[in-house]
Every structure is written in structure tokens, then in C-alpha cells.
Design brief:
With 450 residues, the chain is an alpha/beta fold. The chain has 14 helices and 23 strands. β20 and β21 form a beta hairpin. The chain is globular.
């Protein structure tokens, strides 16, 4: 029996190769996954990391040892795997460590129809079975069938968002040597009025140019410079497994993910008036404001894809967005896809004579700190100290839907929550202006870091 608790996270598997994650462990997880999810087959895909093909093959071997077939899609983005799971109505497994450094790898798993798996809905059971070891099925092994999903994925997205009639646009895309370099040409470069300027499209899981993590502003510098140099209309940056997309405008300035959420929500509400829109509690206050103004119903939820997807299923929501640039679509099996969000932005931009910076002004109403992390030894005590400091103030409201969210009488607010995977507290602050953001941020950090 082995202990896999260090690599099983809240929503996925993530470890260092080969110290905490290797082919033997992947094979054991594959067998356990097959036992838990059942079904006639499992669809498997992997990213461009050097370790990914061997891990995916080992996982497939574990699945077939239980008498269940494997549809092996090979290279793909995470949202391509979700397409395969939804289109084929099969459970799926994607081998990727997303934006993590090259020495990491992992697995994102889902049930049939791209339904999420979390600790409470099967991931803990998979871990326990894998730790104990799953004996081979007494009957015949399952078969492995290779299948190309890229063309179907591209066609499906292009059916959801028609870009054929927009004005010509020059689009710089930074794939960060990740899977965007594989999926973007298939989706955006085939007969559309788009001039795609590629940046780091070469698939290379060692990330020779910069980490494939656009959430870090340092990793947007090359994209911003290329947008300005080429006079492009827009810049797009994908993370390593290309399920998240970040946007910069024609000036090279980042468009906040909350503004993208509000923009896409407005487009979806034009298509389906009165629909429900999901937003997590760290997105800007502008998101629910704009949803209400456009006749929609905003629903606030916790951070994390399993909560977003579950709430979308419960409410029938048409779209959901997170501050981390994860965007979820009912018509994409409630799964997250950065590519589809990017296509919505391109359609809005291509249907308007104004530059993107002007278009997004109406969706960016407040100043924000971005996520500020603090390493702490005792997260609960630090959060309790922050709550105690603000609880006594007049007009302050506090909720604990996810961490600690404090709303002040002047309309400013902050959320403080513990990381699921690291000894960190994550702080997000929003207010009417940068000065108020800085003052509130520094006050909270002085308590957290005391």
C-alpha cells in the first residue's frame, strides 16, 4: 500500500516526475478510475510535457486491465478532452500539469459528459483504491483505439461562435509552448478573416521561453510587446493545457478576466434573455451588476470548477466565469474552455469599429488588487484575526461562503481564503479607486503577516 495523499488535490492529481508521480502510479490510478467510473470506455489525452505520453499510456493500461476500453486521443488541450468526454459521452482523463513548471505532471479527470470529479464525488475513492492496488479483471482486457478529436473539436466550437462575418482582425497568440500551439491553428486559422501572429507555438514541455502561466504578469510581457510592434487588434495568451485564455487589448494592456466574464455574459444574454449567469465570489462586483442590467440572473458561488459546474447544473445557467480566466459554457457540457471565450471576444471586437480598449471600458468599473499571496504557518488563526479586526466596525458585513469575504460601507470588499495545495492565504481586494484598494490591501496584509 502506498500513500498518494500528497499528489491528490481538491480537483485533480499533481506531482513531481518521477519523485511523487510516475508510470506505476499512473497505471494504478487508471485501474482505480475504471473501477469507480465504470462505463464501456474512457477517453484519454495528454499535453506536450516529455513525461505525458508514457504516463497516459500507463494509465490506459490500468483502465484496460479492468476490462474497459480506451479511446486514446493523443495530443490535446484540456478542453479538447472535455469535448471528447461530452461528444462521446465517456469518462475522461487528461494528462497535464496545466501552468506548473516542467518537472510537474498530473491528471484532470471527469465523468461522462465532462462532469466534474472532486474529493467528495469520487476522487477520494479513486485515491484509496489506487493506494491499495486494484487486481486485474478476471475477464478479457479492454482494447485501445486511437482517435483524432481535433477536427471535431474545432468544428464544434466554430458552430457555437460564427466568426466568418466579422471584420478582418490581426490577432497575436502566445501559446507559451503549450497546447494552444496545437489547437489555435485548427480553430482560428482555417478560412476566417483573422491574421494570426503566432508566438511560441512550438510544443515544448520544458517551456524554454517563459512559464505557461499567463496569470503572472511577467509572462505577458512578450505578448504585449508583439501586439504593439505589429499593430494588432488583440492579443491572446493560453496556459499550458490551453483551458484558460487571457486577453490584452490593442495597447497591450491586460483585460481583466472579470471584464471578459461580463462581456461574454452580455453576449450570451442577448442570445438567451433572462438566463442565469454564474460568477465566483472573487469576480468583480461589475459582473453581477452588468448581468442584472442586461436582464439576467447572477448567481454567486465558491471558487473552483466543481462548484461552478454543479451550480450551473442546478440552475440551468448558460455561462459562468472565474477571476482566474476559467470560462464555462452550458453548450460545452458546462466545462471550461478558454478558446470559446476568446472566440466570443473576437466576435464582439470584429462586429464593432471601436478598438478593444474602448469596448471593454464599460465592463471594467472598479479597481482591484489582483491576487496577493502570503505564506503563513496557521491560516485559520490569521483569518480569525482579520475577522476580529473588521467584525467590530459599523456597516461591515461578513460571509464565509469561501474563506472570508468582508464588505465595507463604502462599497469596497476583500476576500481572504486558504490555498487548497500550499500554506498560503490568498487576498483579493476591490474598491472604487486604486488608492482605496492599496489602503485596504495593506491593512489586511498587516494583520495576516503580523
Amino acid at each position: 500500500m502506498v500513500d498518494l495523499r500528497s499528489i491528490f488535490k481538491a480537483y485533480d492529481v499533481r506531482g513531481v516526475i518521477p519523485d511523487t508521480f510516475n508510470a506505476d502510479i499512473a497505471r494504478a490510478i487508471g485501474a482505480a478510475f475504471a473501477r469507480v467510473v465504470g462505463g464501456p470506455a474512457v477517453v484519454v489525452a495528454h499535453d506536450m510535457r516529455p513525461s505525458s505520453p508514457d504516463l497516459a499510456t500507463a494509465f490506459a493500461d490500468g483502465v484496460t486491465s479492468q476490462g474497459i476500453d480506451v479511446v486514446f486521443a493523443g495530443l490535446g488541450s484540456t478542453d479538447l478532452l472535455y469535448y471528447g468526454s461530452g461528444h462521446l459521452d465517456l469518462p475522461g482523463a487528461m494528462f497535464t500539469a496545466s501552468h506548473n513548471p516542467a518537472e510537474y505532471n498530473g491528471i484532470k479527470m471527469c465523468r461522462a459528459g465532462a462532469a466534474p470529479i472532486s474529493g467528495e464525488t469520487g476522487l477520494d475513492e479513486i485515491r484509496r483504491l489506487a493506494e491499495a492496488g486494484v487486481p486485474e479483471n478476471a475477464g478479457p482486457k479492454g482494447a485501445v483505439t486511437e482517435r483524432d478529436l481535433l477536427s471535431g473539436y474545432a468544428a464544434y466550437l466554430r458552430d457555437l461562435v460564427d466568426l466568418s462575418g466579422i471584420r478582418p482582425l490581426k490577432v497575436v497568440v502566445d501559446a507559451g509552448n503549450g497546447m494552444g500551439g496545437y489547437t489555435v491553428p485548427a480553430v482560428l486559422e482555417q478560412g476566417l478573416p483573422l491574421e494570426v501572429v503566432p508566438l511560441y507555438f512550438e510544443l515544448d514541455g520544458t517551456f524554454p521561453n517563459h512559464p505557461a502561466n499567463p496569470l503572472d504578469p511577467a509572462n505577458l510581457v512578450d505578448l504585449q510587446a508583439r501586439v504593439r510592434e505589429t499593430g494588432a487588434d488583440i492579443g491572446l495568451a493560453f496556459d499550458g493545457d490551453a483551458d484558460r485564455c487571457f486577453v490584452v487589448d490593442e495597447r497591450g494592456d491586460p483585460v481583466p478576466p472579470s471584464a471578459v466574464t461580463a462581456l461574454v455574459a452580455a453576449q450570451e444574454l442577448r442570445r438567451e434573455p433572462g438566463a442565469t449567469i454564474i460568477h465566483n465570489l472573487i469576480t468583480s462586483t461589475a459582473v453581477p451588476e452588468i448581468v442584472r442590467e442586461r436582464g439576467g440572473v447572477p448567481v454567486r458561488t465558491r471558487v473552483g470548477h466543481s462548484f461552478i459546474k454543479a451550480t450551473m447544473a442546478e440552475t440551468g445557467a448558460i455561462f459562468g466565469g472565474e477571476h482566474s480566466a476559467h470560462y464555462y459554457f452550458r453548450d460545452f457540457w458546462r466545462a471550461d474552455t478558454g478558446m470559446l471565450a476568446a472566440m466570443h471576444v473576437l466576435r464582439v471586437l470584429g462586429s464593432d469599429d471601436r478598438p478593444l480598449s474602448r469596448i471593454t471600458e464599460e465592463y471594467s468599473r472598479y479597481a482591484a488588487s489582483g491576487e496577493v499571496n502570503s505564506t503563513v504557518a496557521d491560516a485559520p488563526s490569521r483569518m480569525a484575526a482579520v475577522r476580529a479586526a473588521f467584525d467590530v466596525r459599523d456597516g461591515v458585513t461578513v460571509d464565509e461562503l469561501d474563506g472570508l469575504t468582508v464588505h465595507l460601507p463604502d462599497g469596497s470588499w476583500f476576500n481572504l481564503r486558504a490555498s487548497n495545495t500550499e500554506p498560503l492565504l490568498r487576498l483579493n481586494v476591490e474598491a472604487s479607486d486604486e488608492g482605496t484598494v492599496a489602503k485596504l490591501r495593506d491593512e489586511v496584509l498587516s494583520i495576516v503577516r503580523a
